[in-house]
# Entry
Amino acid sequence: MDPELEAFIPLFPPADLTDPVAARKNLAELSGAAPPADTSDMRIEDRTVPAAPDVPVRIYRPHQARGAIVWLHGGGFVMGDLDTEHPWATRVAHGAGTVVVSVDYRRAPENRFPAALDDAYAALTWTAEHAAELGVDPERIAVGGHSAGAGLAAAVALRARDEQGPPICFQLLNQPELDDRQETWSARNFTDTPWMTRDKLATTWRHYLGSEPATPYAAPARAADLSGLPPAYIATAEFDPLRDEGIDYALRLLQAGVSVELHQWPGTFHGSQAILSAEVSQRQISELAGALRRALSR
# Structure
């Protein structure tokens, strides 16, 4: 493991989602301890996407933004909100020079699949319909996120393809959670890695799915056909149960004729890019923003 990251492992909360309320509180405290993000170069506005129910979003508008990304926070489908995601949404907007529509989707287990996907898709549709108001080209709208949010972004891309929905030009998938089956080598062997363990991963899927079987819109790795999807940037962490499903998804996209940039970060663990002082974290964040900036500039 990267020595700059290893020193911080004792500071991370326990990898436990058995009590969703306590887990949300722990994440909020961890996020609140982060240095405040610089928002001097952008306008930030809270809006509501009309849906059933309505979906809160927070919009970040840097000056001279080139496109937009519908951004979906991580948290195992259970944790996270607009406030905990605020530092990351700000960094994405600033680093990529893009409008970020951060989505406060409904969380499990109170709201199981497909609630979060419906909210994310409603946010995509709203963003496309309001592209002129947001000052962006409707042909330059991406989807993305971290962990469970990245899995939701991949599912939104599948649904938009299947339903001939709003065009998506790019998908930015950071350490995506894509497969409920947990059959990959990393899922079977990384049982006690920092922040994300096999047991925690299994708990996220129980909260999200309940007793219902997974569909490709819940677990995109189950999709039989990945052709016709938007180009993708996929990043994985070496010591992460999710590592191999992200790599496998990238390879299957490539085999289906989809352009993919795949970056496997050595010495990292799930969510370790939150340790901003580490040189590898700075490179990860820069690469994510750079990939999005390039995609929206084409």
The mean pLDDT is 95. The chain has one domain: 3-297. Residues 3-297 form a domain with the Rossmann fold fold (CATH 3.40.50.1820). The first helix runs from residue 3 to 6.
